[in-house]
Amino acid sequence: MDHFELAPELAEEISAHALECYPEEACGIIAGDGDAGTKLYRGRNLSATPRVAFELDPETLARQLDFETAGLTMTAIYHSHPSGPATPSEADIVQALYPDSVTIVCSLADLSSPVLRAFQIAQGQVREVSLEGTARTCSCLERANLARRQLRPLDIWYGDGSPGGGVLEPGAGYLKGHAVCY
């Protein structure tokens, strides 16, 4: 697999989950079809050392049975690194048990700009997979939450934090003209 399609709202949900669990690692699974994720299931981290490792709870993993009945598969497993980079750790590589699923890592090294990256991990080998449909950085997360509280529209901002321009089609963003993260 060379790319993985992740809808912007799922990227936002991963970032939000990671921020809610901070300073511990968040984790969950994504159901979908082929190389696209369509539904996110938040998990619970049962690790004895949740600030530096994750162990996905069995109830969340068992959800696979529900979505496999619907013709979907577990297309990705995600987790966060509260202070580390958006790359798999040695433990992540050793513990990767689903070679057909993409591993998405969300770095919170900069809390105002979560970074998402995707990887295929099989037999100890790691290969980065292009994330499509979303940005690797979602710096608009805090701006979007602030705007909702202040009940005012946002400018369009790109994942690198630079102000946007008139290059997007009207309503192209996942918040329909309020904030766009690409």
The secondary-structure element order is EHEEHEHEEEH
Give the tally of β-strands.
7
Counted by DSSP, the helix tally is 4
Question: How would you describe the shape?
Answer: globular
Helix content: 10-25%
Content of β-strand: 25-35%
Instruction: Tally the structural domains.
Output: 2
Text of the CATH class of the largest domain: Alpha Beta
The CATH superfamily of the largest domain is Cytidine Deaminase, domain 2
CATH topology tier name of the largest domain? Cytidine Deaminase, domain 2
Return the structural class.
alpha/beta
- Strands ordered across the widest β-sheet: 1-3-2-4-5-6-7
Mean pLDDT: 79
- In whole angstroms, the N-to-C terminal distance is 21 Å
Largest sheet: 7 strands, mixed, barrel
Low-pLDDT windows of residues: 135-182
Offer a concise description of the structure.
This protein is an alpha/beta fold.
Could you please describe the fold and organization of this structure?
There is one protein chain. The protein is of the alpha/beta class and 182 residues long. The protein is 23% helix and 27% strand. It has four helices and seven strands; from the N terminus they run E-H-E-E-H-E-H-E-E-E-H. The chain has helices spanning 8-21, 58-69, 90-94, 140-150; strands at 3-6, 27-33, 36-42, 73-81, 102-107, 115-122, 125-132. It has a seven-stranded mixed β-barrel. The model is unreliable at 135-182 (pLDDT under 50).
Secondary-structure topology with pairs:
Elements: E1 3-6, H1 8-21, E2 27-33, E3 36-42, H2 58-69, E4 73-81, H3 90-94, E5 102-107, E6 115-122, E7 125-132, H4 140-150
Parallel strand pairs: 1-3, 1-7, 4-5
Antiparallel strand pairs: 2-3, 2-4, 5-6, 6-7
